[in-house]
Each structure stands twice: as structure tokens, then as C-alpha cells.
């Protein structure tokens, strides 16, 4: 009996062994011979991130203009992030969708740029103001709006400004190529008389070329400059940037500056239409970040930042700086610059920063920049963390971009539009565009703008590179804590740094167009008793 039980047990073990082997073999064969199901699921995943074709988006002409230049109507482009709470897997685990995209509280601040009751239309002009703008797109935009205010102060007729064609970018664009000239003239009719060109009979009139003093107030213009009308019929401003004080100007002049920038100085219809198309295509991915990745040759050469570059690349940037006459500082210590936070974050550092904030790898990111120095090889680390990196060139066809590609200012204008309309804007460097976009987003309701603390970040990232700090929860918590109050919340414009004097005192002030509060933003009055919803 015992022997029979042992034989039965042995037979049962043998059958089970064969059965397990057969099942394992079938599973192995299924994986290798029938992989189509795996490929299908993978292809479905990939296809969800493919850019909609231009046929799907459509080539219709945009009849309505971008409304982010208007004061009272909500932007036509803006689509609020989905209201339902979604959960995303990020660097810190499960993160609430709304916390990543939710803008700061506006505290009921709204644009208030209408002139006072004492504000009068322009009186008879005393002469003509010619303006030669200088710098890139946003430096020129700020300068043009300051010259509108100056023309009002000195009672001049403003001739449509001449754009800078001699800067680093060598852009041949005229005013009407970049801006809506007719709209600019008509919008300012009650403020300043603006004409397209100097009358022929004035071509031989007496004129003076004057470089206005930087950050000057009303007294300087109404006394020293206005006295020049006694001897000259035409005054030509040799430069336009930073010629007007940020603060301590009459409220009506400050509001005029905002009307000029946010209402009158609208981009040309062609640029606005293309900008809107790019925004719509980015929206097809959902809420997106606009990343102003200022890691371009001109910025690195100007700032002297060479961290992570080869010696040959560093030498090339030094040569560019030495041969650019209007860049005054030639000798720059790159390590010192970076330690003080004066260098743009590298693409690799930006990737680590976004991961630390909790944005998942599926986050759509628009790269608002020109050609990245070092090309695709510099973008590898950022791309490995965030594969959905988009740009003008990826969102639009060569044919669609062809009218703009040879003009740096027009290409920058497209980036500006997509950046202003983004759900989150993050600049890697606080240059002219970063400051202009930040100010515009504050004006439009304090949209979320995260300003990296580059000095603090570089210190942390260097520790990670040296191996004394690991990338993980500890690093992420510190970075999040540092940036809790750097997300575009309402605050008054910062004054000069304590202890500074003379021009350095003005230079240390926060620029007027970076933060239009308090001059152009006021608290909204409480609504009346009727709180019912009404659609428009």
C-alpha cells in the first residue's frame, strides 16, 4: 500500500512539472511570436502626443484680432485649464493637477488706464520728434512707449519710430512689418499726434540729434528738452531705451505708457494671426508651459557665461563680445557671474528645476527662444525629462513660417504671443523679453509666472553635480519652498536698492513695464446686489 502511494505521488509531481513547463513555454512564445498587441498599445500611446496636422487644425483666416492687447475683454485665446481635478504622477508622487497650473490670487486687481477728467487732447504741436529705437524687440517696444509719453510731455508730433537695424540680430524690419501702424496712430489720437513720416517741407528744417538722459523725470523733459524748440523744429532721439523714469511721474503719464504698450502697440495682423495659430496648436496638448530658454549665442556672449561649455565654445563667445562695440564690458569672470545668479540656467538645469516643481514628464512645453547654443546636444537632458518640447518650427510648417524666418523681431513677436497666453511662463534668465512678458501677464490678471531664483538654484545644482546632495525629495522640497513666493502674485513695483546713489539708484529700480502696479492696476469695485450669471 505504501509503495502505491509513493508511485502515485511521483506521477502527480511529474504531471505538475510538465504542466508548468508547458505554460511557461506558451507565455514565452506569445511574447516573441505575437508582439503586435504590445506594439499596438505603444503606438496608441505615441499617437496621443502627435501634433495635429495642419489640415486638422485648419487654415482659416483669423477674422478676430488677439484680445490680449485689450483692456476690458477677456483674451480670446485663453482657455482655462480643465476644472475637474486630475491626478498626475510627478517627481513628488501624486500631485494635484490644479496646484501645478493654478494662477496666484489676483486680489481683485484689474487694469485701470483711462485718463483722468483733467486730461486734455494734445494741443498744437511745437515740433517733430524723431526716434531711433535700439535693442531687440522688447527693448524697442518699451522705448517706443516711453517716447510716446515724452512726446506728450514736450508737446511734440511723434513720427513713427525707426526700428533698430544695426543690433546683433541685423533685422531689416520696418515699424509696419512688426506692428499695426494704423492702429497705433488711431489709438493714440487723444494723447499724441502721430504721423507716418516727416512732411516734405520739413526735410530741411533745423534739427538736433539728442541722446536723452537715462531715467529722466518730467522736469528734465518739460524744461531742458522743451527749451530746444526755441532753436530747433525737429528733435531726433538717438536712443529710446530707459530714457524715462520708472516712478514719480504724473498718474496720467504712467497710464499713457500702459495704454501705449498694452493697447496701441499691437503686432501686425500677420504676426497676430500666426501667433494665435501657434497658441491653438499648443492648446491641443492641454495646459502648457512657455519656457523662455535664453541659452542663445548672443546672451551667453554678452553675459560671459560659459559653464559647461568647451574651451572652443568659450573662446568663440569671448571673441563675439570683444568685437561687439556697443557691449561695454569685455572682461567677465564666468564663475563669479554664475555664483551671483547672473547667468541663464542651462537646459539641463531647467529640466531639473521643472522636475523639482513637480511637473510630470508629459507636460507640454513651448520653447520660446531662437537657436540654442550647442544645438540638439545641449537639449538632450531636458528632452529626456520632458519629451513634449515644442517650438515655432515644430508647430508650424516651413511655408507658414517663411514670411517671418529672416526677421528676428518678427520671430520674437511670435514667441511673445505664445508666452503671454501660456498657462505658466518660466524664464531661464531675466532679460528684456522675460521682464516684458511678466509685466504683460501681471496686467492681464496676474497669470502664473515662476521666476527662478538662479543664485539659489546654482548653489543646489552644483552640490548635486559634486555628489554632496542627491536629486530627490530633499532637493525638491527645498526648491519648492524657495519659489513659493515667486509665482507672479500681486505686489507693488520695487523701488531702488537701499544705499545706491545717482544713476545706479535708478538702475536698481524695478522697471516700469515689469510691474504696472500701482500705476495701471486698481482694485475692482465690489459688484452690486445682482450676482446672477449672464453669458456674453
Automatic annotation (TrEMBL):
One GO MF term on file is:
glycosyltransferase activity
Q: Name one GO biological process term.
A: fucose metabolic process
Species: Aquilegia coerulea (Rocky mountain columbine)
Pathway membership, UniProt: Glycan metabolism
Q: Which family does it belong to?
A: Belongs to the glycosyltransferase GT106 family.
Q: Where does this protein reside within or beyond the cell?
A: Membrane
Extract the InterPro entries matched here: FucosylTrfase_pln, GDP-Fuc_O-FucTrfase
Q: What is this protein called?
A: O-fucosyltransferase family protein
| Protein topology in the membrane | Single-pass type II membrane protein
Write down a Pfam family by its short name.
Answer: O-FucT
TM spans (from-to): 12-34
Chief location category: membrane
- Annotated keywords: Carbohydrate metabolism, Fucose metabolism, Glycoprotein, Glycosyltransferase, Membrane, Signal-anchor, Transferase, Transmembrane, Transmembrane helix
What GO terms fall under cellular component here? cytoplasm; membrane
Amino acid at each position: 500500500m505504501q509503495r502505491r502511494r509513493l508511485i502515485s505521488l511521483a506521477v502527480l509531481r511529474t504531471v505538475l512539472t510538465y504542466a508548468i513547463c508547458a505554460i511557461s513555454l506558451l507565455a514565452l512564445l506569445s511574447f516573441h511570436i505575437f508582439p503586435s498587441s504590445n506594439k499596438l498599445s505603444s503606438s496608441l500611446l505615441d499617437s496621443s502626443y502627435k501634433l495635429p496636422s495642419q489640415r486638422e487644425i485648419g487654415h482659416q483666416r483669423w477674422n478676430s484680432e488677439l484680445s490680449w492687447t485689450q483692456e476690458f475683454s477677456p483674451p480670446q485665446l485663453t482657455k482655462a485649464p480643465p476644472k475637474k481635478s486630475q491626478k498626475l504622477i510627478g517627481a513628488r508622487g501624486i500631485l494635484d493637477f490644479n496646484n501645478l497650473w493654478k494662477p496666484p490670487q489676483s486680489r481683485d486687481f484689474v487694469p485701470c488706464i483711462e485718463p483722468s477728467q483733467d486730461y486734455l487732447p494734445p494741443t498744437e504741436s511745437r515740433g517733430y520728434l524723431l526716434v531711433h529705437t535700439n535693442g531687440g524687440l522688447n527693448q524697442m517696444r518699451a522705448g517706443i512707449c516711453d517716447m510716446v509719453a515724452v512726446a506728450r510731455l514736450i508737446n511734440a508730433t511723434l513720427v513713427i519710430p525707426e526700428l533698430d537695424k544695426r543690433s546683433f540680430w541685423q533685422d531689416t524690419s520696418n515699424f509696419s512689418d512688426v506692428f499695426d501702424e494704423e492702429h497705433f496712430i488711431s489709438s493714440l489720437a487723444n494723447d499724441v499726434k502721430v504721423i507716418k513720416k516727416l512732411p516734405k517741407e520739413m526735410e530741411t528744417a533745423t534739427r538736433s540729434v539728442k541722446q536723452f538722459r537715462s531715467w529722466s523725470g518730467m522736469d528734465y523733459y518739460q524744461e531742458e528738452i522743451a527749451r530746444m524748440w526755441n532753436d530747433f523744429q525737429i528733435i531726433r532721439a538717438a536712443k529710446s531705451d530707459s530714457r524715462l523714469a520708472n516712478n514719480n511721474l504724473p498718474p496720467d503719464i504712467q497710464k499713457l505708457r500702459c495704454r501705449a504698450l498694452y493697447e496701441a502697440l499691437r503686432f501686425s495682423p500677420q504676426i497676430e494671426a500666426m501667433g494665435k495659430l501657434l497658441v491653438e496648436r499648443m492648446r491641443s496638448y492641454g495646459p502648457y508651459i512657455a519656457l523662455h530658454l535664453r541659452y542663445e549665442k548672443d546672451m551667453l556672449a554678452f553675459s560671459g557665461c560659459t559653464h559647461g561649455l568647451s574651451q572652443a565654445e568659450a573662446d568663440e563667445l569671448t571673441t563675439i563680445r570683444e568685437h561687439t562695440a556697443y557691449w561695454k564690458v569685455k572682461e567677465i569672470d564666468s564663475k563669479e557671474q554664475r555664483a551671483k545668479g547672473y547667468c541663464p540656467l542651462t537646459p539641463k538645469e531647467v529640466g531639473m528645476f521643472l522636475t523639482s516643481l513637480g511637473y510630470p514628464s508629459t507636460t507640454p512645453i513651448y520653447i520660446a527662444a531662437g537657436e540654442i547654443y550647442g544645438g540638439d546636444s545641449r537639449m538632450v537632458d531636458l528632452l529626456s525629462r520632458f519629451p513634449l518640447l515644442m517650438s515655432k518650427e515644430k508647430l508650424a510648417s516651413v511655408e507658414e513660417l517663411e514670411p517671418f524666418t529672416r526677421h528676428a523681431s518678427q520671430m520674437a513677436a511670435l514667441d511673445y504671443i505664445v508666452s503671454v497666453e501660456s498657462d505658466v511662463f518660466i524664464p531661464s534668465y531675466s532679460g528684456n523679453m522675460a521682464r516684458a512678458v511678466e509685466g504683460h501677464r501681471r496686467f492681464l490678471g496676474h497669470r502664473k509666472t515662476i521666476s527662478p531664483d538662479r543664485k539659489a538654484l546654482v548653489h543646489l545644482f552644483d552640490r548635486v553635480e559634486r555628489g554632496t546632495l542627491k536629486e530627490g525629495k530633499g532637493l525638491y522640497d527645498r526648491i519648492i519652498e524657495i519659489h513659493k513666493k515667486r509665482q507672479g502674485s500681486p505686489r507693488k513695483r520695487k523701488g531702488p536698492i537701499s544705499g545706491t546713489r545717482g544713476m545706479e539708484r535708478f538702475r536698481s529700480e524695478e522697471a516700469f513695464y515689469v510691474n504696472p502696479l500701482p500705476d495701471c492696476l486698481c482694485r475692482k469695485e465690489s459688484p452690486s446686489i445682482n450676482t446672477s450669471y449672464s453669458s456674453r
